[in-house]
């Protein structure tokens, strides 16, 4: 055997002996109990292996000026201690020159040192185990970190990303107090500062965080819009991930906000080596993948979060989540989605080993009731990072809101008179909106909130026609790139945007596609656009602050503006780090001043009321079904009534609302039994039927579950697989029926274009030539109206699936582009729900294999080469096509590029968005790699290690030990 083979053979044997040997650090653990006794065997083995040093790092005293004195003080304490133990970790550098036995785990093993000599070394001239651990945590892996600390630039661009070796940040077992910065190490804290572009926290954030860490209780905190609430939650989540080694669930109200948060957290995820997973639309799987190493933040909509919690409770895995953060908790008082959120929170509170809850919101009128429901401590503060000045414009007079008192004089102070400069301008723009915009544009941004979508478009045209032609010279190149990007996104450009974009003006509402809205939002954030005319939904969606906010009227549609919605909209005025103040102007007619004063300015803060008992007890039934199925609140009437009374917001408000829990439970159970969702078993014990379990698993509306079941049974008897049309009809959402009214001529035209196989699907559903003829002759066909309208939506989906543009489909079927895309995303999401629904029903086994890939196909609706790029958050067909044409064909291509190259090759991609896109691509690539690695490890664990065919004799072992392991 030659020396090289001899070395390799000896190395392999030593590794086997090391892996099978007793704990070589037993002596170090005698004096200091690091690994808890209740830890399972697998975690113990991982903890032992983590003690082996991987790569000697640079001297910590060379990394930070403050670390030198710290280490010197620790060195003094070491010299005075007669016997201390050592934690071998790559985040702590040994200063003893004799410590040369620590070699790289990739290419070296623990040389010739015997167990006795190793223990002797461990017990001489080193830190104690706890001291070394604390030092490692304090300096948080700085040895493998590229630190580039800088304050946020005035341009608002995200600073460069750097990475930390997570294995050096924390060992697998630590105390919750594991660092000097709110429980976080110096390195971790610098990563947060760098990726978030901050130098320090606001005073209220510091107080709130210290209180949250000290008590470790559920927390409810409330501040005005733009107060910096989210950063507190993110710091608490990072602490949970790194210190407690638990996953986190971040619950957000809308898909757009989920996608924005995925983008903004990706940089921090890379820096600190944790994962982020999107649960919105058709994305996310139940239950979440079980992970062995990396911690994860699940960012989910209300409905998806409900599915995550259900699946984890069912499998007994909820203890994997240590913290649940709920953004915009006041949504618990808003209709059907509020009932869904209350159901989710109730289950978390009732779980045997439930996670900690942190909820945040704008100002709430009945925060005490909400805190009692959540069993949470309260923190409130009336804080804004920049001053907000409120104005009312009535006629030509501008009045500043100076108080919240009874009477006109006490509330308003006259500031100035404002009118249009010319008679023609006054005629076209009597409210002077253009003048208010021109006072800040184009150097600063302005939001104009309008009451309707149509009004947004007309106001955008009005403003652009009255602004100075000088604005045409502002960022001309950037506007041209934006126009090209919008054209590539949808195939053509809206005529209104074509005329307003040169002035830096655009409209923003649900009639645009999500991809168009994102491009416009990015342009507004980067300063390419200086004014957006938008609906009130923008105030509740993505964060787009501006110097000035203008409310076109005190109405939303035909409904009077509420105080809560008013505060939400004006809260967008003023950008921390950019503006010294923010301004809001509400345009009011003279006869509306009294209503504005009493119902908006002086109105009490809005209350949050439970929605469980609303809408024929729909929310209550959803809660009861969950509690019975998961065995959380009992399985009899009496216990369920007690649960309702003591563990829900509805119960907290029962006295005020004169609600009887027993009566409500009885009504809810009776309705559920009629829908075949539950059964009354022996001793009046309640049991969930198969249909009930399928309804719960698929997150299907309780009132629609029986209809879905019947539709699937009917389809199963004659399922047509020669075309995707039949599956498309089955996943067309029931709640979208009625949103688009059928046009008879379009219906007839689209029906006649169907292939023979597709006509067979239509006839199976009950729509044939006779039905079409009656439609064209204005007669009512003998078929349910809901079926007729639903198939009309299916035809829209079919055209999109075949490659028709959103523009063509919207024009043909008589709806907006946003309606078309909303239908597509809703159908994709509902397909995912139906997939989970049929998984619980054995009779529908065939649909399981069909629906999972179809849901993905439907969500993409694009050519195969664009599918990988569309995995990126908020990347639609248009931007995926631009990336593909620019040479970025895969996620890896995006992940390995740099922001400058991406910006130069893709039209209208701001650097901030490029940084976020690259970070998101890296997260997805790492996620795929981690999944494959863990799958491979799981397979290898099932296979025993191979043993040598011929055992080594003693002479051979001695010779092997004398060969240098560094020889190659």
UniProtKB/TrEMBL annotation:
UniProt feature, compositional bias: Low complexity: 66-77
Chief localisation class: nucleus
Alphabetically ordered keywords of this record: ATP-binding, DNA damage, DNA repair, Helicase, Hydrolase, Nucleotide-binding, Nucleus
GO cellular component, one term: nucleus
Record-linked InterPro entries: DEAD/DEAH_box_helicase_dom, Hel308_SKI2-like, Helicase_ATP-bd, Helicase_C-like, P-loop_NTPase, POLQ-like_helical
Limits of the Helicase C-terminal domain: 432-628
Presence of keyword Nucleotide-binding: yes
CDD domains assigned to the protein according to its UniProt record, in alphabetical order: DEXHc_POLQ-like, SF2_C_Ski2
GO terms (BP aspect): double-strand break repair
Keyword DNA repair attached: yes
Cellular localisation: Nucleus
Pfam families noted in UniProt: DEAD (PF00270), Helicase_C (PF00271), POLQ_helical (PF21099)
MF GO annotations: ATP binding; helicase activity; hydrolase activity; nucleic acid binding
PROSITE patterns for this protein: HELICASE_ATP_BIND_1, HELICASE_CTER
The Helicase ATP-binding domain, residue ranges: 210-382
Ranges of Basic and acidic residues composition bias in the record: 36-49
Residue span of region Disordered: 14-83
Protein name as it appears in the record: Helicase POLQ-like
Natural source organism: Daphnia pulex (Water flea)
């Amino acid at each position: 055997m030659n020396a090289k083979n001899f070395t390799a053979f000896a190395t392999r044997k030593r590794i086997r002996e090391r892996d099978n040997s007793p704990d070589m650090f037993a002596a170090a653990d005698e004096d200091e109990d690091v690994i808890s006794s209740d830890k399972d065997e697998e975690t113990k083995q991982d903890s032992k292996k983590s003690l082996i040093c991987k790569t000697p790092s640079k001297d910590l005293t060379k990394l930070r000026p403050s670390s030198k004195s710290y280490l010197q003080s620790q060195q003094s304490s070491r010299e005075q201690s007669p016997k201390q133990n050592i934690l071998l970790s790559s985040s702590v550098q040994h200063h003893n020159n004799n410590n040369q036995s620590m070699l790289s785990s990739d290419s070296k093993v623990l040389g010739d040192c015997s167990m006795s000599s190793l223990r002797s070394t461990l017990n001489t001239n080193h830190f104690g185990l706890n001291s070394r651990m604390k030092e490692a945590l304090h300096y948080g892996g700085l040895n493998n970190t590229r630190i580039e600390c800088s304050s946020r630039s005035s341009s608002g661009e995200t600073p460069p990303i750097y990475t930390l070796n997570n294995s050096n940040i924390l060992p697998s077992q630590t105390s919750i107090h594991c660092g000097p910065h709110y429980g976080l190490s110096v390195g971790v804290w610098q990563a947060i500062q760098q990726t978030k572009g901050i130098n320090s926290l606001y005073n209220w954030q510091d107080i709130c965080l210290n209180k949250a860490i000290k008590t470790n209780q559920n927390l409810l905190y409330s501040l005005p819009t733009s107060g910096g609430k989210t950063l507190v939650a993110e710091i608490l989540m990072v602490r949970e991930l790194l210190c407690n080694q638990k996953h986190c669930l971040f619950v957000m109200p809308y898909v757009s906000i989920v996608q924005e948060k995925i983008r903004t957290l990706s940089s921090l995820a890379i820096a600190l080596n944790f994962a982020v997973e999107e649960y919105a639309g058709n994305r996310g799987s139940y239950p979440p993948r079980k992970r062995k190493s990396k911690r994860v933040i699940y960012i989910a909509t209300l409905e998806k979060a409900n599915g995550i919690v259900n699946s984890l409770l069912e499998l007994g895995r909820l203890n994997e989540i240590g913290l649940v953060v709920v953004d915009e908790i006041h949504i618990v008082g808003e209709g059907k989605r509020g009932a869904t959120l209350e159901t989710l929170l109730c289950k978390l509170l009732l779980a045997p080993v439930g996670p900690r809850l942190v909820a945040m919101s704008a100002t709430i009128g009945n925060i005490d009731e909400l805190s009692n429901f959540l069993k949470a401590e309260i923190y409130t503060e009336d804080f804004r990072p920049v001053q907000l000045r409120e104005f009312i414009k009535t006629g030509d007079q501008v009045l500043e809101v100076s108080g919240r008192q009874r009477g006109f004089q006490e509330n308003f102070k006259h500031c100035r008179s404002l009118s249009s400069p010319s008679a023609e301008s006054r005629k076209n723009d009597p409210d002077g909106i253009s003048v208010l915009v021109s006072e800040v544009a184009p150097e600063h941004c302005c939001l104009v909130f309008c009451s309707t979508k149509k009004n947004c478009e007309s106001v955008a045209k009005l403003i652009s026609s009255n602004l100075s032609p000088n604005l045409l010279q502002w960022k001309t190149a950037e506007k041209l790139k934006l126009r090209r990007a919008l054209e590539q996104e949808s195939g053509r450009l809206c005529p209104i945007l074509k005329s307003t974009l040169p002035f830096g003006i655009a409209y923003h509402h649900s009639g645009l596609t999500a991809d168009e809205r994102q491009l416009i939002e990015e342009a507004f954030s980067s300063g390419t656009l200086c004014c957006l005319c938008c609906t009130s939904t923008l105030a509740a969606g993505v964060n787009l602050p501006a110097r000035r906010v203008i409310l076109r009227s005190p109405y939303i549609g035909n409904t009077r503006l509420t105080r809560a919605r008013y505060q939400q909209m004006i809260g967008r005025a003023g950008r921390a780090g950019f503006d010294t103040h923010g301004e809001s102007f509400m345009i009011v007619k003279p006869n509306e001043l009294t209503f504005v004063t009493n119902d908006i300015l002086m109105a009490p803060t809005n209350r949050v009321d439970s929605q469980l008992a609303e809408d024929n007890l729909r929310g209550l039934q959803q809660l009861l079904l969950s509690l019975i199925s998961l065995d959380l609140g009992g399985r009899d009437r009496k216990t369920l009534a007690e649960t309702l009374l003591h563990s829900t917001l509805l119960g907290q408000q029962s006295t005020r609302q004169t609600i009887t829990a027993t009566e409500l439970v009885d009504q809810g159970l009776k309705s559920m039994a009629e829908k075949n969702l539950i059964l009354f078993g022996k001793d009046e014990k309640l049991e969930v039927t198969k249909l009930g379990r399928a309804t719960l698993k698929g997150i299907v509306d309780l009132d629609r579950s029986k209809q879905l079941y019947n539709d699937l049974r009917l389809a199963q008897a004659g399922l047509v697989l020669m075309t995707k049309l039949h599956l498309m009809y089955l996943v067309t959402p029931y709640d979208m029926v009625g949103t688009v009214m059928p046009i008879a001529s379009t219906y007839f035209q689209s029906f006649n274009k169907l292939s023979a196989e597709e006509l067979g699907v239509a006839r199976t559903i009950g729509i044939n030539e006779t039905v079409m003829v009656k439609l064209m002759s204005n007669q009512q066909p003998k078929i349910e109206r809901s079926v007729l309208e639903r198939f009309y939506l299916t035809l829209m989906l079919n055209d999109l699936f075949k490659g028709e543009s959103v523009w063509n489909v919207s024009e043909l079927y008589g709806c907006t582009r946003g309606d078309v895309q909303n239908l597509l995303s809703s159908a994709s999401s509902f397909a995912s729900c139906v997939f989970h629904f049929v998984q619980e029903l054995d009779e529908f086994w065939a649909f399981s294999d069909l629906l999972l890939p179809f849901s993905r196909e439907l969500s993409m609706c694009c050519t195969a080469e664009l599918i990988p790029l569309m995995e990126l958050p908020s990347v639609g067909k248009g931007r995926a096509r631009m990336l593909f044409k620019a040479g970025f064909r895969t996620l890896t291509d995006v992940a390995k590029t740099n922001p400058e190259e991406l910006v130069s090759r893709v039209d209208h991609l701001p650097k901030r968005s490029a940084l976020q896109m690259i970070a998101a691509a890296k997260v997805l690539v790492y996620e795929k790699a981690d999944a494959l690695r863990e799958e491979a490890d799981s397979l290898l664990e099932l296979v025993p290690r191979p043993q040598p065919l011929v055992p080594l004799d003693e002479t051979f072992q001695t010779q092997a030990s004398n060969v240098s392991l560094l020889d190659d």
